User: Which sequence fits this backbone?
C-alpha cells in the first residue's frame, strides 16, 4: 500500500487506495450517483434549475471530456 502524505511532510501507511481520474469505466456509476443525489434534493434544488433527468447522459459525457 502506498504511504499517505500528511501536512507536516511525514508519510503514514493508512492502507488507503490512491484516487484515480474518472473515465468511461465509471460512467454509469457517476450518472447513478448524480441522479440519486439530485433526487434526494428534489424540492430543494430551485425549480428553474431542475431538469428531468437532472443531468443527461450527453451533459455528463461533455463534463467528463
Assistant:
Amino acid at each position: 500500500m502506498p504511504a499517505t502524505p500528511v501536512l507536516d511532510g511525514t508519510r503514514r501507511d493508512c492502507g488507503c487506495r490512491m484516487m484515480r481520474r474518472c473515465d468511461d469505466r465509471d460512467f454509469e456509476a457517476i450518472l447513478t450517483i448524480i441522479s440519486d443525489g439530485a433526487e434526494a434534493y428534489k424540492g430543494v434544488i430551485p425549480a428553474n434549475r431542475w431538469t428531468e433527468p437532472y443531468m443527461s447522459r450527453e451533459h455528463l459525457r461533455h463534463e467528463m471530456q
